[in-house]
Amino acid sequence: MVQYCSGLDTGFAALAAGTRRGILEHLGRGDASVTDLALAFGMTLTGVKKHLHVLEGAGLLTTQKIGRVRSCTLGPRRLEVEAAWIQGYRQMLEGRLDSLGEFLERTKGESA
Amino acid sequence: MVQYCSGLDTGFAALAAGTRRGILEHLGRGDASVTDLALAFGMTLTGVKKHLHVLEGAGLLTTQKIGRVRSCTLGPRRLEVEAAWIQGYRQMLEGRLDSLGEFLERTKGESA
């Protein structure tokens, strides 16, 4: 079993390439072999394997050799920590905007 | 005004470093000068400027020189597209799990 890093650095870095996001979306429609993915993305096997290695290292997919075919499946991670970080950040920004709105409303009342 | 790229590649790459996420969280509590940030993160001015350049290039912060001080503010982007992509991906995964659950339920009913 491949060791993977569940850190945010590794997760976000894995998402920072259109081809890798495309591979995740493709596997969302069903498991695929490395050869299928290379064909779907018009890449060499070596090229697609590099992307798969990054995704596997981030825990976003696993590969398994069945006979002569290496098959790719999504998981075990489902971008939980990345989603939580972005949500927390956006909530903080909304909180700041709300505070600013309340301040402006209060100031308007005081100056009326 | 600095040109920025609103692409997912640039946004996710900007988030793929703990220091850069820390800078965003720090600025969420209020604007800060480049010197403040260098002190807060125990970095050199050159080091922190490299991270600010990446964040500014992704549209996640802007800098403005006021007198002799360069001040950093969050925005204009608020990780909208990154949040939407991750949400879409996770919804797709949930959809797959729901389908699998329905299939198993149906199969169980048939075999009963």
Binned, the helix content of chain A reads: 55-70%
**What gyration radius of chain A follows from the Cα positions, in whole Å?**
21 Å
The neighbouring-strand order within the major sheet of chain A is 1-3-2
Q: How many extended strands of chain A? A: 3
Structure in words:
2 copies of one chain form a homodimer. With 112 residues, chain A is α+β, with helices and mostly antiparallel strands. Chain A contains 5 helices and 3 strands. Chain A has a 3-stranded antiparallel β-sheet. The interface between A and B is medium-sized, with 26 and 26 residues.
Entry keywords:
homodimer; 112 residues; alpha+beta; three-stranded antiparallel sheet
Summarize the structure.
Chain A is α+β, with helices and mostly antiparallel strands and 112 residues long. Chain A has helices spanning 8-15, 18-28, 34-40, 45-57, 80-111; strands spanning 32-33, 61-66, 69-74.
Helices and strands, with pairings:
Two copies of one chain form a homodimer.
Chain A (H helix, E strand, L loop, with lengths): L7 H8 L2 H11 L3 E2 H7 L4 H13 L3 E6 L2 E6 L5 H32 L1
Antiparallel strand pairs in A: 1-3, 2-3
